[in-house]
């Protein structure tokens, strides 16, 4: 019978034959793989056979071997006792790179553990052997050779430094012979030192126990610790001279070296901060520290912390403990001992000033020297020395000095009658106390009464064409026997302007002379906040707000721009409220910056120049045109948005003062504030950059 096979049947048959062929080939490959010979590692390369390793002198040990001729295998290093045969090794671990590499680096800590499991005794030698197991799939094979290795174990297997052995820093770059302290840190026993290091000069460490002396050095990475007894070494170095904290961990043979940027005492209530000076060998000193307590509903508060700034990160230190609830006497044992605590104003353990530094009737009575000791000889601690007191009563004041109504953007001048006259922004166009821009009067900068207003309803100017534009930030100067007020007014689209008014008396009446500075004419928006600087018969007007700070020379009478004068930008677009003072031949440009609302970051900053026209720079020489400056005053937990200051007033005792505005929690308007200005290394600073609150000595005017 003749059969006919169609094309569809032929195609099906071809596919079946093809699949059978593939399966046969695959089965053949599998048999070939299973039959592939697993070839052992032929050579062990390092360490050498019979090597003698002093564990104290190594941080880790490299084991290396030759590659198996079989592809795609894994390697395991095996350790066994001297008489073992690797059938039950005492330790095994895959090589580096998950078993793929022909090497592994084993730490000193792990080598000590291996030796201990094998029966090693502290202070003695133990001989082991090692080999390499090659594995592929379910098959494995031992290397053709094994090697012996002898470990010399340290006398104390729990730590490389023995009980009673002391550790010291040494070298040209170190405070030679300063002892390193043994401390508990993060659950481990480490060695720690606070010390000064000189740039590019070597330092190292040595230990001493009786006649035995050992040396330790950091490797080039600055991290790995290595015992170098009997070896030549140069020591390690730092790139910057300064104070450092060095921590040495002999379990891991690792070290950390951290730069100590600053050490300060911070009063918890106000944030007032005073910086210590490093003396030597782990000690810092703060001389003539005036203890300034904080008045409260229950009397006063005296809490503080010690703040270390290390690698630019703050680290708070408080009581070591147990915490003492009551105010301690100065000689209470252990009270001033220190330990790291939680950061934050009220978090963690606080200190309290001792009773001998507290007087509820005079919160600023005592001055003392504070000594911080971060040394190995005793607990980390601090002490109060050379306590003195102000026995005579001096007048005190409290901030804010005026709260009856708002007095923002103040400026002040002393009249011929001895009174101080203050001028402030017209905070309200309807309130009788503030409308037309108030003038205030005081003999002591503390007690103020209203003396009138710059303008009246009839004379109130409108120089920008905007209806009901208020008077902003008036500043006062005396030029050729006349009192000149430079005031600002707003306008639509930021085209604000500065006007000028004059009077023969600080209380007015003031006659308006119209617009002096126009935003359009000068090519800079928000032209407000003028201040006149006078020197050698010449007048320079500074102004600007959050666009740029400008200066231009005025005529001798201060009433117009000098012919040919050109505006110059002296600071960038994040500032306002310029004030300039020259001291010791240096011009100081004081400005305000930040968010000026309640709770904001508004603060006073400063730059310096040798020329009235700039450039004004910070301590690093960075230009204020690039918004670089030094901090002069900022808010704290009680006062916010502290800024826009008056000119500096010097009292009869030679102390400088400024008035400025700030917010308090209980009021929704800017209140008048007063604080000392101190010159620290030639730079003006208000109370270590924070406003004061209560119990502070008042200005002296006789």
Molecular structure report:
The chain has 702 residues and is mostly beta strands. It folds into four domains: 44-152, Immunoglobulin-like (Sandwich), CATH 2.60.40.10; 166-252, no CATH class; 260-389; 396-697, Glycosyl hydrolase domain, family 43 (Tachylectin-2, Chain A, 5 Propeller), CATH 2.115.10.20. Helices cover 6% and strands 43% of the residues. It is built from three helices and 51 strands. Strands 10, 11, 12, 13, 14, 15, 16, 17, 18, 23, 24, 25 and 26 form a 13-stranded antiparallel sheet that branches. Strands 2, 4, 5, 7, 8 and 9 form a six-stranded mixed sheet that branches. Strands 46, 47, 48, 49 and 50 form a five-stranded antiparallel sheet that branches. The longest helix is centred in the N-terminal third of the chain and has 28 residues, at 7-34. It is elongated and about 110 Å long. The model is unreliable at 1-34 (pLDDT under 50).
- Sheet having the most strands: 13 strands, antiparallel
What distance lies between the first and last C-alpha atoms, to the nearest angstrom?
142 Å
In the CATH hierarchy, the third-tier topology of the largest domain is known as Tachylectin-2, Chain A
The total strand number stands at 51
The percent range for strand residues is 35-45%
Q: What does the average pLDDT come to?
A: 89
Low-confidence stretches: 1-34
Radius of gyration: 39 Å
Q: What's the structural domain tally? A: 4
Oligomeric composition of the shown chains: single chain
Helix percentage: under 10%
CATH architecture of the largest domain: 5 Propeller
Q: What would the principal axes of the Cα set say about the shape?
A: elongated
For the record, the CATH class of the largest domain is Mainly Beta
Structural class: mainly beta
Q: Give the full name of the CATH homologous superfamily of the largest domain.
A: Glycosyl hydrolase domain, family 43
Number of helices: 3
């Amino acid at each position: 019978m003749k059969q006919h096979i169609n094309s569809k049947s032929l195609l099906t048959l071809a596919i079946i034959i093809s699949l059978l062929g593939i399966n046969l080939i695959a089965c053949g490959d599998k048999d070939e793989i299973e039959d592939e010979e697993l070839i052992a590692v032929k050579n062990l390369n390092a360490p050498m056979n019979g090597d003698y390793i002093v564990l104290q002198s190594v941080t880790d040990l490299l084991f290396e071997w030759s590659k198996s001729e079989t592809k795609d295998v894994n390697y395991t290093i095996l350790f066994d006792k001297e008489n073992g045969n690797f059938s039950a090794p005492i330790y095994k671990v895959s090589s580096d790179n998950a078993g793929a590499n022909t090497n592994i680096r084993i730490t000193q800590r792990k080598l000590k553990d291996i030796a201990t499991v094998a029966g090693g005794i502290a202070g003695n030698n133990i001989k082991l052997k090692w080999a390499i197991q090659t594995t592929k799939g379910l098959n494995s094979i031992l290397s053709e050779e094994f090697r012996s290795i002898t470990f010399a174990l340290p006398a104390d297997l729990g730590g490389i430094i023995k009980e009673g052995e002391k550790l010291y820093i040494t070298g040209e770059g170190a405070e030679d012979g300063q002892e390193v302290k043994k401390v508990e840190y993060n659950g481990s026993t480490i060695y720690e030192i606070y010390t000064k290091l000189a740039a590019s000069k070597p330092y190292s460490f040595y230990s001493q126990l009786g006649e035995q002396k050992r040396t330790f050095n950091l490797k080039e990475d600055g991290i790995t610790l290595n015992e170098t007894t009997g070896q030549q070494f140069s020591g390690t170095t730092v790139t910057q001279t300064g104070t450092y904290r060095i921590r040495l961990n002999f379990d891991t043979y690792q070290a950390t070296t951290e730069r100590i940027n600053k050490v300060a005492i911070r009063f918890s209530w106000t944030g007032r901060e005073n910086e210590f000076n490093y003396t030597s060998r782990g000690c810092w000193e703060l001389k003539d520290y005036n203890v300034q307590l904080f008045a409260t509903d229950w009397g006063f508060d005296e809490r503080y912390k010690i703040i270390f700034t290390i690698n630019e990160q703050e680290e708070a230190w408080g009581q070591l403990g147990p915490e003492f609830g009551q105010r301690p006497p100065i000689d209470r044992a252990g009270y001033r001992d220190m330990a790291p605590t939680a950061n934050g104003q009220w978090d963690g353990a606080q200190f309290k000033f001792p009773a001998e530094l507290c007087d509820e009737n005079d919160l600023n009575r005592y001055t003392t020297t504070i000594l911080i000791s971060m040394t190995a000889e005793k607990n980390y601690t601090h002490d109060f020395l050379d306590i003195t007191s102000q026995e005579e009563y001096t007048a005190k004041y409290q901030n804010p000095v005026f709260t009856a109504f708002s007095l923002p953007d103040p400026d002040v001048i002393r009249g011929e009658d001895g009174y101080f006259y203050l001028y402030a922004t017209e905070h309200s166009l309807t309130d009788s106390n503030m409308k037309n821009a108030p003038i205030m009067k005081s003999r002591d900068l503390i007690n103020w009464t209203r003396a009138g207003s710059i303008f009246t309803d009839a004379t109130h100017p409108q120089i920008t064409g905007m209806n009901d534009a208020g008077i902003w930030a008036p500043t006062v100067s005396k030029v050729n026997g006349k009192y000149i007020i430079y005031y600002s007014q707003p306008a639509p689209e930021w085209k604000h302007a500065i006007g000028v008014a004059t009077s023969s008396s600080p209380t007015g009446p003031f006659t308006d002379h119209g617009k002096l500075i126009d935003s359009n004419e000068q090519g800079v928006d928000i032209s407000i906040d003028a201040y006149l600087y006078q020197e050698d018969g010449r007048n320079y007007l500074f102004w600007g707000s959050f666009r740029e700070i400008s200066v231009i020379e005025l005529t001798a009478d201060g009433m117009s721009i000098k012919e040919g004068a050109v505006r110059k930008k002296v600071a960038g677009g994040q500032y306002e409220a310029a004030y300039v003072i020259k001291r010791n031949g240096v011009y100081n440009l004081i400005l305000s910056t930040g968010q000026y609302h309640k709770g904001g970051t508004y603060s006073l900053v400063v730059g310096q120049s040798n020329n009235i026209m700039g450039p004004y720079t910070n301590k690093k020489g960075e230009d204020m045109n690039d918004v670089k400056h030094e901090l002069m005053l900022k808010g704290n937990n009680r006062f916010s948005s502290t800024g826009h200051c008056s000119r500096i007033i010097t009292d009869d005792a030679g102390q400088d003062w400024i008035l400025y505005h700030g917010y308090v929690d209980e009021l929704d308007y800017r209140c008048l504030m007063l604080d000392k200005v101190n010159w620290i290394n030639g730079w003006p600073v208000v109370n270590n950059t924070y406003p004061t609150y209560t119990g502070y000595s008042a200005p002296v005017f006789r």
